[in-house]
């Protein structure tokens, strides 16, 4: 049975199911896609701890577009959107199916903007480097929703709320980025672990805000002081978090995992909404 037909049957039979969790994954280096380490192990473990999704919708830091797009092909390509890494990383293919029906349904759910059905992108490393550890058989449909770079965090937070119906239909919505991400300041001698003082300060600030559901402060991250400006010099890795938080209901809690600083200026902190 194709992924396309699986989703069609699921929306008919299980529309009243409990909500799927929503996730934000700190994906870090593309090498995590092939490494067996503490981060990739937790991705494997989290997949075993939640219901098997009917499809996965990824909002990745690495698909930044003017306007909003969603992949709508039967079989999205594996994109190697990086350079300077070992050939083994470029050899990776993640042949998960897409789901054109789900893509169209998702586009129609979003009323705040026009969503373009995209047949050219595929799965970038923000998607496949994480999902290949979660679902190594590549038998679950995977789609990507792009991030409109012309819009602010508040816009993306509100757009996420329009996707809530997908959680009721067994779709796992997964933001993929890094809450603190400043590659210009990275110290490769600290790549196994450790953060600069300002990064550790902001790590604690962000964690407390997430756990206390202080979403407005997280939306207006540029008002959190000079350390926040170092933590988020550009927004693309932070904005996927807005999609995860925007999907949180009043009765749901956030659980943190992979809460570690690496390279001085990057955190792998990840969030599960459940």
TrEMBL record:
GO molecular function: ferrous iron binding; oxidoreductase activity, acting on single donors with incorporation of molecular oxygen, incorporation of two atoms of oxygen; zinc ion binding
Source organism: Pedobacter insulae
Keyword set, alphabetical order: Dioxygenase, Metal-binding, Oxidoreductase, Zinc
Family label: Belongs to the DODA-type extradiol aromatic ring-opening dioxygenase family.
Superkingdom: Bacteria
Descriptive protein name: Aromatic ring-opening dioxygenase, catalytic subunit, LigB family
Cofactor: Zn(2+)
NCBIfam families: PRK10628.1
CDD domains: 45_DOPA_Dioxygenase (cd07363)
InterPro entries the record matches: Extradiol_dOase_DODA, Xdiol_dOase_suB
Pfam families to which the protein is assigned, alphabetical: LigB
Residue span(s) of domain Extradiol ring-cleavage dioxygenase class III enzyme subunit B: 38-251
């Amino acid at each position: 049975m194709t992924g396309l037909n699986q989703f069609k049957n699921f929306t008919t039979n299980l529309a009243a199911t409990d909500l799927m969790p929503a996730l934000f994954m700190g994906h870090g280096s593309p090498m995590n896609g092939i490494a067996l380490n503490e981060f990739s192990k937790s991705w494997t473990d989290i997949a075993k701890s939640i219901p098997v999704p009917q499809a996965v919708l990824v909002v990745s830091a690495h698909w930044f577009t003017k306007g909003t797009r969603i992949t709508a092909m039967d079989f999205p390509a594996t994109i190697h959107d990086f350079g300077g890494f070992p050939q083994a990383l470029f050899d990776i293919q993640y042949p998960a199916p897409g789901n054109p029906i789900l893509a169209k349904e998702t586009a129609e759910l979003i009323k705040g903007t026009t969503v373009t059905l995209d047949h050219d992108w595929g799965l970038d490393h923000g998607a496949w480097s994480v999902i290949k550890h979660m679902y190594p058989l590549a038998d679950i449909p995977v789609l990507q929703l792009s991030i409109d770079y012309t819009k602010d965090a508040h816009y993306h937070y509100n757009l996420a709320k329009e996707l809530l119906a997908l959680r009721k239909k067994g779709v796992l919505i997964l933001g993929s980025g890094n809450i603190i991400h400043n590659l210009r300041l990275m110290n490769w001698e600290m790549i196994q672990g450790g953060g600069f003082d300002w990064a550790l300060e902001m790590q604690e600030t962000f964690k407390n805000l997430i756990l206390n559901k202080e979403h407005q402060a997280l939306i207006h991250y540029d008002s959190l002081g000079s350390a926040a400006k170092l933590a988020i010099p550009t927004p693309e890795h932070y904005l996927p978090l807005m999609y995860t938080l925007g999907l949180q209901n009043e009765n749901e809690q956030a659980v943190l995992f992979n809460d570690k600083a690496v390279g001085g200026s990057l955190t792998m902190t990840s969030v599960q909404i459940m």
